[in-house]
Write a structure and sequence with these properties.
The protein is of the alpha/beta class. It contains 11 helices and 17 strands. Strands 4-6-5-13-14-15-12-16 form an 8-stranded mixed sheet. Strands 7-3-2-11-17 form a 5-stranded parallel sheet, with helices on one face. Strands 1-10-9-8 form a 4-stranded mixed sheet, with no helix packed on it.
Length: 375
């Protein structure tokens, strides 16, 4: 049995872990990444890559992301009330989609090609926090100065912090062959869920049909997806469904953790509580953590400062989520949005493609829209 000493250990080789590990390895930092899965591995995710996420991916590839990373490019978004089309909005900038199994594996391969060390298939990790030591399956030990949790919505760190209450959504999805159901648009379906939406996203030879809502143990998510698929005219027999949790409006407080422990991506509660988009915050938190570790004497403080804006986005977004899905507001929204393609495109460009406004400024966004559009 041997001991491997690193300055930084990252638990989780998903987008948050790789978003941090790739810049670190490029800068010759001493690090390793540990994941319980063996890659390529599946990840329940609809794979929507917005402009702001795309730019972060490009930076991981030094300016040019390989085209085969993406399985589809779409130029429009459509909103439905159940199956009734409300609005079809062209997008100024196309959005991309990824197959998560391929995408995550590509990032892991990039990290390894750059010389990065990965311990995979390491389920049931034993971490000795006072000794700053992790014991691997084969009995080898790994020591660290900094420990970064990038291990998803149900992070091991939540046990350490004794986090017992946090807002999680549960998402369920199925991949349907395009011969059975097809779309070229980003299709969002309202009216099926109390605090979330369903979607149909094009993935090339398949479409991803899914639904995500604030988690409620009484909800039968499988049945819900069956109903949606039946409404879309798809026979769901023999089609596998997969479900997963995602953070949905609670930032996990990191101040109670030691200064050498950081939470990234879903582990830190970083997803957008309106759209459920998590790839951006995962990659961005990874990039910020790397920057803090590489350039500052007090990385935790610097990291939390860099994350300030995204922390606000989650907290303010949670308030907007509650208002948006309150029955009177939601009903009014579905009535008023009919035919408003310019408004939907504007919102998408300003708030989804990029965070040009904060959620606390959403009224200003609307008044700016009204100043420039006659629709
Ligand atoms: C149904 C659904 C649809 C979604 N659709 C979108 C979308 O279209 N666009 C978007 O931007 N976001 C979407 N998201 C959110 C997005 O998938 C997540 O926010 C994103 O994957 C977070 O990345 P991460 O690296 O933080 O965590 P993850 O991607 O979950 O990666 C965590 C890694 O840690 C490993 N791990 C976990 N536990 C341990 C452990 N104990 N020990 C060692 N390793 C461990 C896992 O194997 C995994 O490799 C969706 C989520 C769901 C559930």
């Amino acid at each position: 049995m041997s001991e491997h000493n690193f300055d930084i250990v990252i638990i989780g080789a998903g987008p948050a872990g790789m978003g941090c590990a790739i810049p670190l390895v490029k800068n010759h930092a001493s690090l390793c990444v540990i994941d319980r899965a063996t890659f390529p591995r599946d990840k329940t995710c609809a794979g929507l890559v917005t402009g702001k996420t795309y730019r972060l991916i490009v930076s991981l590839y030094d300016g040019e992301a390989p085209d085969d990373l993406f399985c589809f490019t779409s130029g429009s978004v459509r909103l439905f009330r159940r199956t009734e089309l409300l609005v079809d909005a062209p997008l100024e900038h196309s959005v991309r989609l990824v197959n998560r199994k391929d995408f995550d594996n590509a990032l892991v391969e990039r990290y390894k090609q750059l010389g990065g060390t990965l311990y995979e298939g390491e389920a049931g990790l034993s971490i000795d926090y006072p000794a700053k030591r992790i014991i691997l399956k084969n009995g080898d030990t790994v020591t660290y100065q900094y420990l970064l949790f990038a291990d998803g919505a149900l992070s091991l760190a939540h046990r350490l912090l004794k986090v017992d209450k946090r807002d999680l959504a549960f998402g369920i999805e199925a991949y349907i062959p395009s011969e059975k159901l097809s779309t070229d648009s980003i299709d969002l379906y309202f009216g099926y869920l109390d605090s979330g939406y369903a979607w149909v996203f094009p993935h090339g030879k398949t479409v991803c049909v899914g639904a995500a809502d604030l988690y409620d143990r009484k909800t039968d998510y499988r049945r819900l997806l069956e109903v949606i698929l039946a409404d879309l005219g798809v026979d769901a027999a023999d089609i596998p469904f997969k479900g997963a949790y995602l953070p949905y409006g609670t930032v996990i407080p990191q101040d109670d953790l030691d200064d050498n422990i950081l939470l990234l991506g879903d582990a830190g509660g970083f997803t957008d509580p309106i759209s459920g988009e998590g790839l951006y915050m995962a990659l961005q938190s990874g990039a910020y953590a790397a920057k803090a570790l590489l350039t500052t004497a007090e990385p935790k403080e610097a990291y939390l400062d860099y994350m300030d804006r995204l922390t606000r986005t989650v907290k303010d977004g949670k308030r907007v989520q509650k208002t948006f899905y309150s029955p009177p507001v939601h009903k009014l929204f579905l009535k008023k949005v009919v035919g408003k393609s310019a408004l939907v495109s504007y919102f998408f460009e300003q708030m989804v493609e990029d965070y040009r406004y904060e959620y606390r400024d959403v009224r200003r966004l609307y008044s700016d829209y009204k100043k420039t559009h006659k629709e």
